[in-house]
Amino acid sequence: MGEFGWLTVKEADGNSEIESVLEPNANPTAMEFQDALFKQGNPATAFEVDDFSQEVSRLTKLGVEFTTELANTGDVRIAVFADTCGNFIQLYQHNQ
Question: Do residues 75 and 95 touch, judged by C-beta distance below 8 A?
Answer without folding.
Answer: yes
